[in-house]
Amino acid sequence: MIHSLPLFHRIAGQPVILLGEGEAGEAKRRLIERAGGVIVSEDDEQARLAFVALEHPDEAAARLKARGLLVNVTDRADLCDFTVPSLLERGPVLVAVGTGGVSAGLAKALRLRLEALLPASLGALAEGLGAMREALRARFPDMGTRRRALDSALGEGGLLDPLNEASASRLDSWLASSAPMASGVFELRLLSGDPDDLTMREARLLGAADLIAHEADVPEAVLNRARADASRHLIASGEPAPDHVGITVILRFS
After folding, report:
1. What's the domain count of the chain?
2. Which helix (H) or strand (E) holds 53?
3. DSSP 8-state secondary structure symbol assigned to residue 182
4. I need a surface site. Which of 44, 76, 117, 244 has the fewest CB within 10 A?
């Protein structure tokens, strides 16, 4: 089970309550304004979110929660309805690293490591993909085929590999020559129930599959490495996968 549900909440032009003091309060003010939120007083009835950065926050947090607001309290994870992750921004690409309020220092350290991995051109790649959305639909009218073509291009070593600085400049040539990942049935025999033991090929197939056919003893932790919107089908030991158009992955233990 995940600790909390990650969401990206649009607050541009929306009222946000801030009860803050000192450096912690100013940090929250900068964060709200960076996202386009409008800071309002505690009695604003239109606000849905509130940030509390006070030395003694319990009473203020309780008042706000009683009104139905979602509340974040600095350095008090036990009082938080939501936490604020460490953010990495590359244009429209926003990577959020959170620890559920357990360790802001760890989240920052991970974000800094990711900063070194993600090229500055990643934002341009995202914007380019957004701009060619209609052209992509025209080339690949079927959604599954379109997704497989993107999966193939964006995968490690692909023409649009997001970790490659040159990928944004290849968008037009890729669209002209792109082809989807071949559909078919792929059987994976797991040697371990630990998802970290998956090979790169196994992880890639799980991430691309439209249907996951799995035996009952395959752990949920492994299944969770598949796309969240992939269909799942429970099969008996030795049973073949059902007929399906697209990429089907069969998971069994050896």
Report:
1. 4
2. strand 49-53
3. P
4. 117
For residues 248 and 188, state if they share a domain.
yes
Give the whole-angstrom CA distance, residue 226 versus residue 235: 17
Please list, in sequence order, all residues whose beta carbon lies within 8 angstroms of the beta carbon of residue 193, skipping any fewer than 6 positions away: 218, 219, 221, 222, 253
Structure confidence by residue, pLDDT tens digits, 191-216: 999 999 999 889 888 988 889 999 99
* Domain of 90, in residue numbers: 85-118
Q: Say what the pTM is.
A: 0.73
- Measured CA to CA in angstroms, residue 140 lies from 143, 144, 180 at distances of 7, 9, 9
106 and 169, same structural domain? no
Residue type, 220: E
pLDDT, tens digit (0-9, with 9 covering 90-100), for 70-94? 999 999 989 999 999 999 999 999 9
Q: How far apart are CA 174 and CA 125, in angstroms?
A: 12
- As a dihedral over the C-alpha atoms of residue 117, residue 129, residue 123, residue 9, rounded to 10 degrees, the angle is -100
**CA neighbours closer than 13 Å in the CB half-sphere of residue 176:** 4
Strand partners, 185: 248
Beta-ladder partners of 99: none
